[in-house]
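A favour, since you know our structure tokens better than I do. Go ahead and set the record down below.
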Amino acid sequence: MALLVGLDVGSTTTKVYAMHEDMTEAWWGYRRHGACQTASVRAMLGELAERFPHESLRVAVTGSGARDIATALGASYVQEVVANALAISRFYPQTRCAIELGGQDAKMIFFRTNDKGDIEVADMRMNGSCAGGTGAFIDEMAKLMGVGTESGEFEQLASRGTTVHEVSGRCGVYAKTDIQPLLNEGIPTTDLALSALHAVARQTIGGLAQGIDLETKGLAQGYPCSAAGNLRGRYARLQPHAGPRVPGATESIGRSGYRPARSADHGRARCRPVADRHVRIVPTDRPSRRFCPAG
């Protein structure tokens, strides 16, 4: 029998997800590649081969850094947004809006039901060259506060935040100029971590949705959404009508309208309920910044 293998080579991480032919999970792996994409793919496929020495592999490759690797492997290449839409249509057909945050990109896919009752893609949106509002943005904010992201420290800070301050989600450079004065003023890092996640959610909805309402059955994907329950809570607060969640996509997350998908990024998503608490949003008199600096 053959293993069905999905290999996702992204801008910052490499993910492998292997299934048996009956579509049950065999193994998954996730690692940061540090710009050494080929080496990370070799290492992860080597580990897969060690675990399943007698299985043949049927491999499809996706991700921003995947095309040349797919050619070298002699494997099929599928553009990442298309691959995501196909997987959601197959495994989560109730979904009407999917948000995926990667290391340096953000995507939104809108679905509808056609006249035959089948789910189909109504629209796809993806960010441009700026990595504002993505996993890299969250990494930068965590570094500025002296905590880690994959260790869960940043999420723990945000979970204790009670006040949202104005922070730019458009660009990491502008966000730093917003956060540093707040740090100097003695604003708690708990509030700043929550404010950064709020900025990410606002950037996703404002920059990608562009006026399209996020419908009630939503799916949140990618490591930032999986690791940060408060980020999913931000989406729900910015789109309060997004109520019912997609059933079967792991556990519910507080009152959030968005649930983490079980995906090649992280296998079974590790998630904690978001506390249902009042969060105060502080307005600012600082001028808004609309553009990223050149370069």
Remarks:
- The CA atoms of residues 38 and 219 lie 30 Å apart.
- The longest helix spans residues 189-209.
- The longest strand covers residues 2-9.
- The chain is about 35% helix and 20% strand.
